[in-house]
Amino acid sequence: MWSMKWQKTCGAVEKLELPHMNLSGRVSEDIQQLYSLTALNICCNAFSLSLLKSTSSLTHLKNSDVSQNYFVGVFPSSIGRVEGLISINGSNNNFSGFLPEEVVNLTKFESLDFRGSLFEEPIPKSFKNLLNLKYLGLAGNNLTGRIPGGRRARQAFVFQNYYFQVQ
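The structure assignment produced for this chain is given below.
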């Protein structure tokens, strides 16, 4: 048996925290009905398969931690429509394909952590437009190329991936 830590105001769930609960299987698409959700933490479980196909209904989401699970496939591109999003921690999963370039649409975005996944190809050049970026963790992937221009992006990136060449 497990318990769920959640916080609600005005009858709407704002925070869903289920870390270290030994949960497994697929994350239900019903989570998209939590329209007031500001924080989602399902780290350190055994969730597998792909992550939600769409996150665009989670318009109030600010922080998402799905780290240390067994998620596979691409990270949902709809994340770029969650305008208030500040941070994503998707580290230590099996995400693959391209990094979600759509995060450049997030004007308040500060932290992206995808260390220890299976992303490939160059780091998108558009990442240089992440003006508020403070942390970019991409070590342990199969990325190639140079760190995109932009002093802030390079500073945030260089501490985690010192072996990449800075433009």
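Interim note for the steering committee: DSSP finds one helix and 13 strands in the chain. The first strand starts at residue 5 and ends at 9.
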